[in-house]
Design a protein that fits this description.
This protein has about 300 residues and is an alpha/beta fold. The chain folds into 2 domains: about 1-160, HUPs (Rossmann fold, 3-Layer(aba) Sandwich); about 185-305, Elongation Factor Tu (Ef-tu), domain 3 (Beta Barrel), CATH 2.40.30. It has helices at about 30-45, 60, 75-85, 95-100, 105-115, 135-145, 165-175, 175-185, 200-205, 290-305, and strands at about 1-5, 15-20, 50-55, 90, 115-125, 150-155, 155-160, 160, 190-195, 210-215, 220-230, 235-240, 255-260, 270-280. A 6-stranded parallel sheet has the order 1-4-3-2-5-6, sandwiched between helices. The chain has a 6-stranded antiparallel β-barrel with strand order 9-10-13-12-11-14. Helix 7 (about 165-175) packs antiparallel against helix 8 (about 175-185). The longest helix is centred in the C-terminal third of the chain and has 19 residues, at about 290-305. The chain is elongated and about 75 Å long.
């Protein structure tokens, strides 16, 4: 998948382009419905499907002190867009000057920078331009005048309520893993680099990879049935988020992963992704290492049952 960091960097292609536009934090099932429309239309006309989104997220610019934590990093977003079959992604810098564009100027700039623009797909509630004056109704008119394809996808629901990044963030905070994963259409995940730790798990007979998270959000402390992605390979794993209270007091929170079936893999320095499939139990403090070891054995049995 091609990635560019400004609309003006788009290099003309010989095929028509269908653009899915929006703020796609988390790439939840509402977002993927919008993007899938672009992919399907692009295939119909032998064109390319591109995503237009922002980096940084507009909230980080408009209200930096109150901006919500993001569900995904830009790298995660790009990875999952590529897996969906998107041909390219425009990571447009969001600035105050960009925000002040009139909606018509924004649309004309799209058409200028992407000469073979053949269609646009958005969510029905997407807005753009100065004072958010641009909307689906305006895009319907503008695309119609140029004989371009246009889709404004209706809201997508999960458990009879509208799916939104805000709703997902709240579910993450509450530890509602099944609800989060249902709305995302995939397991919640964290990416980060594997670093050297204190090797407490190894001394207990359960070596772990210590991961420095890059995401704004982590699920609540506890044990999770998980999978670890290293490159294109997935490994069954147990994930722990917590303070290792059995051994420390007032230590920073850590994210550790134990691979269930692989022990000879050198993960140090690698960039990995942890996917949380099911919450097993909360973080606990044990009287001694032996009681902790016994609980870990029970946890791993429960995790194997989930992953099997």
């Amino acid at each position: 998948m091609k990635i560019i960091h400004a609309l003006e960097e788009f290099h003309e292609t010989d095929v028509p382009v269908i653009l899915a536009a929006g703020c796609f934090d988390g790439l939840h099932i509402g977002h993927t419905a919008v993007i899938q429309k672009a992919i399907e239309r692009a295939k119909e006309i032998n064109g390319e499907a591109w995503v237009f989104t922002f980096d940084p997220h507009p909230a980080k610019v408009l209200m930096p002190d109150r901006a919500p934590p993001l569900i995904f990093t830009t790298d995660q977003q790009s990875l999952h867009l590529q897996e969906m079959g998107v041909d390219g992604c425009i990571l447009q810098p969001f600035t105050i000057d960009f925000m002040k564009q009139e909606p018509l100027d924004f649309f004309e700039n799209l058409c200028t920078c992407i000469p073979h623009l053949a269609g646009i797909s958005v969510g029905e509630d997407w807005s753009f331009g100065r004072n958010r004056a641009g909307n689906a109704a305006l895009l319907t008119k503008l695309c119609g005048e140029r004989n371009m394809y246009f889709s404004a996808h209706p809201e997508v629901q999960w458990n009879n309520e509208r799916v939104s990044s805000t709703r997902i963030r709240e579910a993450i905070k509450l530890g509602h893993t099944a609800e989060v994963n249902g709305m995302l259409g995939r397991p919640l995940s964290t990416i980060g680099k594997v670093e050297h730790g204190e090797k407490i798990g190894r001394k207990l007979g359960y070596p772990t990879a210590n991961i420095d998270p890059e995401n704004d959000m982590l699920p609540p402390r506890g044990i999770y049935a998980a999978r670890l992605r290293v490159g294109h390979t997935l490994y069954n794993a147990a994930a722990y988020i917590g303070h290792r209270g059995t051994f420390h007091e007032n230590k920073p929170q850590v994210l550790e992963v134990h691979l269930l079936d692989e022990t000879e893999i050198d993960l140090y320095g690698q960039h990995v992704e942890v996917s949380y499939l099911k919450y097993i139990r909360g973080d606990e403090v044990f009287e001694d290492a032996e009681k902790l070891k016994a609980q870990i054995a029970a946890d791993l049995a429960a995790i194997r049952a989930v992953l099997d």
